[in-house]
Every structure is written in C-alpha cells, then in structure tokens.
Amino acid sequence: MAQKNVRVRKVPVSLVTGTTKAGVWLGSIRLSGFSFLIMGLVLLGVLVLAPQLKIVVEQRQVIADLQAEADLKTSQLTDLEKQRARWDDPAYVRAQARDRLYYVMPGEISYLVINDATIDGLKREKATASVQNTNTDWVAGLLKSFLVAGLGTPTPEQVQPTPAPEG
C-alpha cells in the first residue's frame, strides 16, 4: 500500500468547544473567602478615604487661590511703593502741580488754550503747486496798524466787535 501524505491540522480547543480565551480565563478563576475579604476591605477603604481626599483637594485649591491673591496684592503694594517714592521727588511734585492744579512758579505766565472750533466745518481749499504773489504790501499794513493802535483814539464803532455773520 502506498502511503499518502496526510497533513493533520491542529485545531484550537476554543474552536472545538466554542469558547474564547477570555471565557477560559474567567472560568479558571476560583474565588475564596479570603479574596472576598480583601475586595471588601479595598472597597471599604475607598469609601472611607474618598471624602477625606475630596477635602484635601478642595483645601489645595483654596491655598492656590489665596497664594494667587497674595501675589497680586504684593505686586500692587510694589506699585504703590514706587508711586510713593515718586512723590518724594520735588520735581515730580512740581510737575504734578502744574499739570493737575495749573500752578505756575512766581514770574511765569500760564496760558490755557481752549480750542472748541471744529475743523470739519471749515472750508478747505486744495493747495496749488504754483507760488502765488499777493497784491498787498504787508510792510505798509503792519506800519499802519502799529501807528493807528498807538496814536489814534478809536471811535465807538471800532471798539464794539462786529457780529459774526450767521450761516
């Protein structure tokens, strides 16, 4: 007789029995009373320690918030100390009195310029590139103004300002 090459395949046990590796593993676990005791103690420990751990975490958060507030107050205190040191300088005090209270030193004259004219309402003409000559003699006008102001007596019409045209 002739022998035939017959190959035999090994089939895993799980395919034959219809179980998986996890099922086989779970089936091999044997629980004793000691195992139940240890699991019960671990569960009891978690239940007892969980509120305490919550309190510790909350206290850490409060400490972090207070530390941040203390750092903010420290920086504010540093800024205030710098400002106080500036007020010890006489030049800074003098500059603040000039700016805030409009004080001046003896012999000085203070001018306040109040500009309440709006620029948008004014007519604007575009500048030209060519130079324009004026037809007036500004030197004669200046001399005439000087002489009239110093030597003449103004009439009541000249003293009263003329009303601005409306429109």
Overall description:
With 167 residues, the protein is mainly alpha-helical. It has a domain at 48-109. The protein contains 6 helices and no strands. The relative contact order is 0.02. The model has no long low-confidence stretch (mean pLDDT 81).
List the keywords.
6 helices
Secondary structure blueprint with pairings:
Blueprint: H1 13-17, H2 21-28, H3 33-87, H4 90-101, H5 138-151, H6 156-159
What sequence of helices (H) and strands (E) makes up the elements? HHHHHH
Please estimate the helix content. 55-70%
Radius of gyration: 50 Å
Percent of residues in beta strands:
under 5%
Given as residue ranges, the uncertain stretches (5+ residues, pLDDT < 50) are none
Report on the biggest sheet: none
Instruction: Give the structural class.
Output: mainly alpha
**How far apart, in Å, are the first and last alpha carbons?**
133 Å
Number of strands: 0
Q: Average pLDDT, to the nearest integer? A: 81
- Please report the number of helical segments: 6
Shape: elongated
